[in-house]
Design brief:
Blueprint (H helix, E strand, L loop, with lengths): L2 E4 L6 H10 L11 H10 L2 E7 L2 E10 L4 E9 L8 H13 L4 E4 L8 H4 L15
Parallel strand pairs: 4-5
Antiparallel strand pairs: 1-2, 2-3, 3-4
Helix pairs in contact: 1-2
């Protein structure tokens, strides 16, 4: 299996919704609202995709200032392709794209909380959030 990673490919809202549904993120994202999904794609400034041929098998969507921090908002890998290093590589390419001087920050889904320390990420407890309305 040769997975190709792209940081210059755009995807449609339908493609993004599909990969969210094939991962574990669909329950935590507005997959029934294509307009909102499109806005998410339009306003993120780093999008890294993973492809098995012409099949989208993973995506990382982030917001960064390219100098201090990078917020990794979405990391989705098709369930059939998980545990093959795709998520780790998507994070690596995302961080490289945002720049070596940035700190990569994310909020882990409960089902993925144990994954991130295994790939070398440090857990912080001092995180605060204002919930969306």
């Amino acid at each position: 299996m040769d997975i190709v990673y792209k940081s210059d490919a755009s995807i449609t809202a339908d493609q993004f919704i599909d990969i969210l549904k094939r991962s574990t993120l669909d329950e935590r994202r507005p997959v029934n609202n294509p307009e909102r999904i499109q806005k998410m794609l339009d306003h993120g400034n780093v999008l890294v995709t993973a492809w098995d041929g012409d099949k989208l098998v993973g995506v990382s969507r982030a917001l960064t200032d390219f100098s201090f921090c990078c917020y990794l908002s979405d990391l989705a890998v098709d369930r059939e392709y998980q545990k093959k290093g795709i998520g780790k590589k998507l994070i690596e390419v995302t961080h490289n794209t945002s720049g070596p001087a940035t700190s990569l920050i994310l909020l882990a889904a409960p089902a993925a909380a144990l994954y991130y320390p295994k790939i070398g990420m440090e857990q912080f407890t001092d995180c605060f959030i204002i919930r969306r309305k």
